[in-house]
Write a structure and sequence with these properties.
With about 300 residues, the protein is mainly α. The chain has one domain.
Length: about 300
Amino acid sequence: MKASKREDGLLPVLALLLAATLWGVVWYPLRLLEEAGLHGLWTTLVSYGAALLVGLGWLWRERRFWLEHPVALPLMTLAAGWTNVAFVLAILDGAVVRVLLLFYLSPLWTLLLGWLILGEKPRRGGWLVFALAVAGALVMLWEPAIGLPWPRDVADWLAVSSGLAFSFSNVMVRQMGQVPVGLKAAGTWLGVVLVALAGLLILALPLPQVAPATLGGAVLLGWVGFVVMTLSVIYGVTHMPVHRSAVILLFELVAGAVSSLLLTDEQILPREWLGGGLILASAWFAAREQHGEDG
């Protein structure tokens, strides 16, 4: 089914840029919580559990949509759940450069899935935007020393599967155009909680003995971070073709590079600035294309 809906100018673009910026810096509080003794799965459960508390009202008030979308909504919920859990575990356990590179194969999956499921075939300008974004990601992140972007360990597979699930969940979000944004967000948080709980049960990880402030920090991350990030992504994806939203979300790479420069001793190489410039150019062209269609 093709999605048909009124586009809302630059507001969806700004929402996606906000989400990408927050996702680009979220690695820092996640690592602080891990250093404080909270395993990634427990951090995910506590943070998204806190977010789910915000969404319980939406789940109840909009419950009829589960009957109207008995396949797409549960699929989005589970895919979004795996996306977030796998990404958190990968970014904590793997090499950050490899994780980002493998995760950001997602625009390719989004382009293909959007074409196959939604019938959203990019125009000539869309292919240019896509090529700029992928070129920027490869220039910015690829290192001969770390090998080709192909999975070689558990963290790699988590990153690849997270990117694929992210693309699929965004396609489902776009397909369910009439489902309220709040319900889609609450479904995402529910999916993350279910996947994290399953992981904790399978791995038999007990609740670590951590300071109350650490648990409070995880809750705050859920309320201040993941609630805003999820709502922003879902709103943006709902209101523009998925291949375009996937390109704009690549701005996370730029945010991640800048945050690592400011918060760590890492230095950004010239090729990383070049790649970031290509990504910014692709996001600008995508935003301009969006504004041109809506104006």
